[in-house]
Amino acid sequence: MTSDEIPATGGAGPPEFDTSVAHQARMYDYLLGGKDNYAVDRAQAEIGLKIYPEFAFTARANRAFLGRAVRFLAGQAGLRQFLDIGTGIPTAGNTHQVAQAIAPESRVVYVDYDPVVLAHARALLTSTDAGATAYIDADLRDTGTILEQAGRLLDFTQPVAVTLVAILHAIPDADDPHAIVARVMDAVPSGSYLALSHLGRELLPPETLRQAEDLVRRSAVQQQFAYRSRDEVARFFTGLDLVEPGLVPVEDWRPEPGTADTGKSTLWCAVGRK
Amino acid sequence: MSSEGSDGEESDSGIPQAGGIILRMLLGTQLRRLREAAGVTPERAGYEIRASRSKISRMETGHVGFKARDITDLLILYGATDEQLRARLLAMAQQASRPDWWSQYGDILPGWFENYLGLESVSSTIRTFEMQFVHGLFQTQDYARAVTRLGHRSAPPSEIERRVWLRMKRQELLTRAAPPRIWSVMDEAVLRRPFGSPAVLRAQLHRLIEATALPHVTLQVVPFTSGGHAGASGSFTVLRFDEPDLPDVVYIEQLTGAVYLDQRLDVEHYLEVADQLGGEALTPIASRHFIEQVAKET
Fold this sequence. Notes:
The complex is a heterodimer.
Chain A: E1 3-6, H1 24-31, H2 39-51, H3 54-74, E2 81-85, H4 95-102, E3 107-112, H5 115-124, E4 132-137, H6 143-150, E5 161-165, H7 177-186, E6 193-199, H8 206-218, H9 230-234, E7 241-242, E8 248-249, E9 267-273
Parallel strand pairs in A: 1-4, 2-3, 2-5, 3-4, 5-6
Antiparallel strand pairs in A: 6-9, 7-9, 8-9
Chain B: H1 20-38, H2 42-48, H3 53-60, H4 68-77, H5 83-96, H6 111-121, E1 125-130, H7 141-151, H8 157-170, E2 181-187, H9 188-192, H10 198-211, E3 217-222, E4 236-240, E5 249-254, E6 257-261, H11 264-280, H12 284-297
Parallel strand pairs in B: 1-2, 2-3
Antiparallel strand pairs in B: 1-4, 4-5, 5-6
Helix pairs in contact in B: 1-4, 1-5, 1-6, 2-3, 4-5, 7-8, 10-12
């Protein structure tokens, strides 16, 4: 096993270990049927489900998209290096497992800033002997730290697959998420890929969207949820070429035949090549 | 069929081959939830199956077996009409009547520990925090013998050997097909205290190092230098089951018995401590290096 933690050198104020406030990673775990969540996370997720029951499908569809995207990146695109920012609590089909099932030598760096994710990811996201994994405890906004530390495991002269799955909507406009993504993609060579999913304004009925945004404003969640338009999401891929089928809801990105779990998600997604 | 399920076989109902006690406890817990959700008193439930209030209580805590007819009658009373649920519960009741592999050790096994063996054998994840001893699943024979002697000073050698044998037999869990994931965090003191002798401890440390190579085993050490770690709670184990509606169970061993917690708020306190410990402990790789270093010094 060649997995280890890259020691953190501080970040932009990660969430405290606090089980009295709902955390996105733990709410997501709950929606996926996991048991690593606390009463406050479940309560908050249930309020969200009352407004829009499809949030449960959205969580599952997002996880399934991550799996298909990584299979594409490790398979058809032939990438062997992954930078998975916004890891979440490990569950079945984590990025390194999917990638290493195709190419055991794949190297995967995970990044998250949630203390519960830290405990689980450090312990459980361990690599095959042929490949390597590492975990960086850092905030996405702190791209300098992420890139510097990821550079200890990844070779930035070779293509890197950057995944930002269901995380950018936690970054408010004030923190300029487009600039953050641009800084990360500037650091990787051509032939690299960006795969992301993001809450989409057009994917909920207008009245539901208003209620959902109102809920986020009123409630005590560690992270915010910024619903962005299709155009705003497309702008993350400036300078990249989108692979087929382009920018679509997560369930429509190269769906695999025989998927029984169907529904309408609230997430845009795309995969683009530099 | 023993609960060890050495072939990892699953029954038709999708329930792992499991020990009777655990299945009775799980079944009882389900019945209690359904009864409470329906607002039915134990008296009323007892009346329905021509039994007493205390019989219902003993059923719900897994102390007695279940008749299929009683389960069917209770589910109707509770308004639980889901056919799949009924079939699952009946299958659990049927399996619960099979003997456990450890039943032949009944003379040396306190009931509270039999319960633990049952739970452990059907867990999908076992998370532990150890302050004093290496976890039983990783003990060498010599280490287990030294620890057992401490707890049973007046026991004859033959009894000590049976206890050690039982512990070794329990470790078959580690090598069966579809083993549970075991995530064990231990205080540095566990690596330092020489039960038996330094040689026994050294061999034990090498066993731990071997265990880190198992893909389903994660070992982490909280070194003395990590100040104020959350383990002020003492040693504990959290058992998790694959069934989505079964709660985690926290197991805390005491000198003369054990505490089982399955109320969500109680369990969450321990999960929180376990998560904090996981964050404060050395990474699995650094932990292995740490154990190797301690073994050299021992």
